[in-house]
């Protein structure tokens, strides 16, 4: 086989695999229709993909014809979801389904990277051994963390709430322990991938995922792929200035979206309303020595407390105003809102939606859908697994795998 034949073969194999991964299970005839390739050509590549163990045939109930899908049990990946206060590690199959997991706590402000990563290693080893799989079946590890990440080098860069993690070589540290590739990205990008494959954005090619929690960030998906920008900082919308407000942000600037409408900001507004008595609901919670959190605003609003409702509508409006600018700029078909604040209730989401519609151009909003995430606390682990799968199953990688087997 000469060089050009090899390249053609690998490109075709890669694209057939991608169609099966994105849209499967599929009949071979579906692949013929979607690729425009000859039936005999598709059949040759499908046989090869089955031979290397990347896809398998699945009998359709009641039918004789067989459908093609990813051979989900041919190997495993580990997804790691590190948050400010949690560390979740999951063992996933090659379709990103969580098979087993260890959900635990973390304290990013006080624990060293070494301490946390040693728990990751221990959890990954435990998951592997209790599910009785060989080290060679581990295809990769994906890691989502709450800060900016230099994706190419797999290192966090000046994460504001993770002392000691600046430039810490997370990917190479873990790669030393496991003989598999390790991919590190920020938590919001990772959650956007989970939405794309398993959540509210299934089937969408151009969408924004917004994480509204203690921090606020966005994952930008363009043509099905995460857009990371020149240095990996794309989507860091929490520090966009909202203008008239002078509240100091932990980044050192004033008037950042996160400092005004993030979880910490809402908790302190709620505390003020509890102390002043502006909210009877919150004042009662305070009197009962309950911790005053942003989450309480959702409970208060649901029980008819007007002050709670006013605060969460104002926060939704602030976020919506920033998202409206992004809609005008990027024209997504969908915005998925996730993170802790998305649980504040439908009135919060409605307030975001109203601001976006009011402030965006009619063409950009004509078919725009704004939805709440439904993945809950599985999003981080699932997305981290998908991060690995996207990389190891890239068209180029699948192609070179095919080139290495004799025809
Ligand atoms: Zn800021």
**Helix/strand/pairing class, anyone?**
alpha/beta
Task: Outline the low-pLDDT stretches.
Answer: 1-6
Quick one: overall form? globular
Main β-sheet, in a few words?
5 strands, mixed
Q: What is the alpha-carbon Rg in Å?
A: 23 Å
Helix content: 40-55%
- Distance, first to last CA: 9 Å
Strand content: 15-25%
Bound molecules: zinc ion
Please characterize this protein's 3D structure.
- The protein has 407 residues and is α/β, with parallel strands linked by helices.
- Helices cover 44% and strands 18% of the residues.
- Strands 5-4-3-6-9 form a 5-stranded mixed β-sheet, sandwiched between helices.
- α1 (3-23) packs across α15 (395-403), α2 (28-35) crosses α3 (39-51) and α10 (295-302) packs across α11.
- The longest helix is centred in the last third of the chain and has 25 residues, at 306-330.
- The structure holds zinc ion.
What's this, in brief?
The chain has helices at 3-23, 28-35, 39-51, 113-130, 170-177, 187-198, 257-261, 263-276, 280-287, 295-302, 306-330, 346-359, 362-365, 379-392, 395-403, and strands at 55-59, 66-70, 76-82, 86-92, 98-105, 138-145, 149-150, 155-156, 182-186, 207-212, 216-222, 225-226, 334-338, 369-372.
Keywords:
407 residues, 15 helices, 18% strand, disordered N terminus, binds zinc ion
Itemize the secondary structure elements and their pairings.
Layout: H1 3-23, H2 28-35, H3 39-51, E1 55-59, E2 66-70, E3 76-82, E4 86-92, E5 98-105, H4 113-130, E6 138-145, E7 149-150, E8 155-156, H5 170-177, E9 182-186, H6 187-198, E10 207-212, E11 216-222, E12 225-226, H7 257-261, H8 263-276, H9 280-287, H10 295-302, H11 306-330, E13 334-338, H12 346-359, H13 362-365, E14 369-372, H14 379-392, H15 395-403
Parallel strand pairs: 3-6, 6-9, 10-13, 13-14
Antiparallel strand pairs: 1-2, 3-4, 4-5, 7-8, 10-11, 11-12
This protein binds zinc ion.
């Amino acid at each position: 086989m000469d060089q050009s034949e090899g390249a053609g073969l690998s490109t075709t194999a890669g694209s057939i695999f991608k169609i099966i991964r994105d849209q499967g299970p599929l009949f071979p005839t579906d692949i013929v229709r979607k690729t425009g390739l000859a039936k005999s050509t598709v059949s040759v590549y499908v046989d090869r993909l089955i031979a290397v163990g990347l896809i398998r045939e699945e009998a359709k109930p009641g039918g004789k014809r067989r459908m093609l899908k990813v051979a989900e049990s041919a190997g495993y990946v580990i997804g790691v979801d590190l948050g400010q206060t949690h560390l979740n590690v999951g063992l996933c199959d090659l379709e990103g389904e969580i098979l087993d997991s260890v959900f635990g706590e973390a304290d990013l402000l006080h624990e060293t990277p070494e301490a946390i990563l040693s728990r990751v290693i221990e959890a990954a080893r435990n998951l592997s051994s209790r599910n009785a799989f060989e080290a060679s079946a581990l295809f990769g590890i994906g890691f989502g963390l709450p800060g900016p990440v230099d994706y190419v080098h797999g290192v966090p860069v000046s994460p504001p709430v993770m002392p000691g993690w600046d430039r810490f070589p997370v990917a190479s540290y873990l790669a030393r322990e496991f003989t598999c590739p390790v991919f590190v990205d920020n938590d919001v990008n990772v959650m956007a991938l989970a939405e794309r494959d398993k959540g509210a954005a299934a089937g969408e090619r151009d969408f924004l995922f917004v994480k509204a929690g203690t921090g606020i960030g966005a994952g930008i998906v363009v043509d099905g792929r995460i857009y990371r920008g020149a240095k990996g900082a794309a989507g860091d919308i929490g520090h966009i200035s909202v203008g008239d407000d002078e509240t100091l942000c932990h980044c050192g600037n004033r008037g950042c979206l996160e400092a005004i409408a993030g979880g910490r900001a809402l908790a302190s507004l709620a505390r003020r309303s509890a102390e002043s008595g502006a909210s009877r609901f919150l004042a009662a919670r305070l009197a009962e020595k309950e911790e005053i959190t942003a989450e309480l605003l959702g409970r208060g609003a649901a029980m008819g407390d007007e002050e709670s409702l006013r605060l969460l509508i104002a926060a939704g409006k602030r976020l919506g105003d920033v998202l409206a600018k992004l809609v005008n700029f990027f024209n997504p078909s969908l915005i998925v809102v996730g993170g802790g604040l998305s649980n504040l209730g439908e009135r919060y989401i409605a307030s975001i939606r109203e601001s976006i519609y009011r402030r965006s151009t009619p063409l950009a909003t004509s078919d725009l859908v704004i939805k709440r995430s439904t993945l809950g606390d599985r999003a981080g682990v699932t997305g981290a697994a998908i991060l690995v799968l996207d990389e190891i199953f890239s068209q180029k990688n699948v192609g070179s795998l095919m080139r290495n087997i004799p025809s």
